[in-house]
Amino acid sequence: MSRLHRSRIAEFEEILNEPNVVLQKLRDFCFNGIPFEGGLRCLCWKILLNYLPVERGAWNSQLRKQRELYAQFLKEMIIQPGIAKAELGVFREDVTLEDHPLNPNPNSQWNTYFKDNEVLLQIDKDVRRLYPDMAFFQRPTEYPCLLILDPQNEFETLRKRVEQTTLKSQTVARNRSGVTNDYPISDVHLILKTAKDLQESK
Fold first, then answer.
1. φ and ψ at residue 180, rounded to 5 degrees
2. 1-40 core/surface letters (b: 16 or more CB in 10 A; e: else)
3. Which residues contact 122 (CB under 8 A, 6 or more apart)?
4. Rounded CA gap, 199 and 193, in Å?
5. Is there a smaller number of Cβ atoms within 10 Å at the N or the C end of the chain?
6. Are 155 and 74 within 8 A, CB to CB?
């Protein structure tokens, strides 16, 4: 680490250690890049995005409040509906005479389901556009949702709703012996040998 980089980290730490962070000063320093070391980058972004207040003394309570809010969101939107469906043995939306996948009614549950999937697909694309090689995106979170990570819970997660399924295709060609290329070479030899043995036994 160069001397210039160490001095820049020290300047950021000095700004962030103030009882009240001067937002304009922080913006000016962040304009030319934020050091990654010591969690400075994520802390600066939390302040710049108003996720954390400029009052340093309120950070712990605000973080605790935000984590509780996120946990409640997971419980209401993913865990409780997922557990209810799993207990009923239902892993998809119900199809009824009044409500079905082609129902144009804006209040249709299927309509809501498809719109949610569009949002989830966009989120999935945005996440894949990030830099997965960066250490930040490879570290496990310090506050995981244990109910979602528990393998005994069989409810559907949002990730499963947007998983892409790839179907493999293969060109089928028939040679002069009437054998297609669906079989490995060893199987082809075995088939030919079996056919020859049958011919000789007649």
1. -90, 170
2. eeeeeeebbeebeebbeeeebeeeebeebbeeebbeeeeb
3. none
4. 10
5. C
6. no
Instruction: Compute the distance between CA of residue 169 and CA of residue 180 in angstroms, rounded to an integer.
Output: 15
Token readout for 70 is 């996120």
86 vs 28, more confident: 28
What's the chain's average pLDDT?
75
Instruction: Tell me if 56 sits within 8 A of 20, measured CB to CB.
Output: yes
pTM given for the model: 0.55
- Cβ within 8 Å of residue 146, ≥6 positions away: none
Express each pLDDT in 178-199 by its tens digit: 555 554 544 545 556 666 666 6
61-69 LR contacts (CB < 8 Å, sep 24+): 67/143
Number of Cβ within 10 Å of residue 57's Cβ equals: 9
How do residues 143-176 score in pLDDT, each as one tens digit? 777 777 776 666 666 666 666 555 555 555 666 6
